[in-house]
Amino acid sequence: MAFFLNSIPVPLKKNTADKPSVRMTDVKTVMIPTLMHQGTPATPVVKMGDLVKVGTKIAQANGELSSRIYASVSGKVTKVCDYLTASGKYVPAIVITADGEMATEEGLTAPTVNSKDELLAAIRESGVVGLGGAGFPTHVKLNVDFENVETLIVNGTECEPYVTSDNHVMNERAGDIEFALNAFKKHLGIKHIVIGVGNNKKTSIENMKELASRIEGAEVIALPSTYSHGSEEAIVFHATKKVLPQGKLPAHIGCVVCNVTTIAEIGKYLKTGMPFVERYVTVDGSCVKEPQCVIAPIGVSLEELFAFVGEFECDPERVVYGGPMMGITVPSLSAPVLKTTNSVLALSEKETKFPKETACIRCGRCTNNCPLGIAPAAIEKAYARKDVEELVALQVTACMECGSCAYLCPAHRPLVQTNKLAKALVKEANN
Length: 431
Fold this sequence. Notes:
The chain is α/β, with parallel strands linked by helices. The strands form 4 sheets. The chain has a 6-stranded mixed beta sheet with strand order 1-14-13-17-15-16, with helices on both faces. Strands 2-8-7-4 form a 4-stranded antiparallel beta sheet, with no helix packed on it. Helix 3 crosses helix 5 (202-212), helix 4 packs across helix 7 and helix 11 (376-384) crosses helix 14 (415-430). The two termini are 24 Å apart. The chain has 14 helices and 17 strands. Helices cover 29% and strands 19% of the residues.
């Protein structure tokens, strides 16, 4: 498979980059799903009527590929209900009515960490998962042999339009990042640390360079801030000059990639014992009058979140988790902030109206601008025929769903949506 590292001219719209983050504490209710990560849902350990505090464990990890969940507010559990995830699966969700005190759980202390096993156990206990969007349990990702995996890559590129949550973390929580990286060096045996930061984040670059100067074997690289250089494939190439083979994890070529906010949350837990209960969230979009980066309790509704930053400029036509290129539409403003929610956008009808689809003109823009060099137009035809063999030959499963093809298509073909459907067809055929 070719690897081109192409990028496309997406407007960055980093409206909140230079504003300090603000913490949201006056919360009425939170609804915390038991599946906010890859793997199996956690199992609730509280029931209706139980009193909880910030940091109280409310759901236990269910197996290795799962994640613990903690209360993000103090108050009373008023319901355990069904919650429909974006994948179409119903899981339990724990509803807590806040008492307004934000009292913390007694006895939270920094974990004792003197070995790799103790560090991984602490990360598992923290409830931290991959916060770049994937939600993969971090204790599993880091459970590799660092004799063969030489490089930890810390991803702070953040090239999606609007999104600035990682930028704020690098500017405001360098101490947490440094604490975690020192623990990784000591207990995991990591030889080389590369912190990748988008070259439009000047303050973050300086903060990370100062941090790296105090850690042996650490360096900072400035990456193109154009879309989609924040992908795992791209940052691995920039950091190591190695191409990640299709279907392989970065450990296959000697590296592990972690999002910078993931690292910061681990550092916070290792220092304080406070588990993962709040999330830096970019609140923006054309309908938001005063965009902000908000430190929000996990589980707070988007309705409360948007109300916190002020009135809408206009009624949103669509609200999106994440950025406009790879984000997903939320069904209603009652949807909660999840562990993986780095951004919430309220977009106008003008921004979200789908242009009229016309016939493919065979211009080749989709293939010429694909970061991985696959051919979306050919995939579209093979999918129409339900030709699984051809879809495999066209390497549709390599698609990272960045949306570059659909964004640039002059015929407005739904190419990334078709790629998703084609990938599902291949997966179904192989099961």
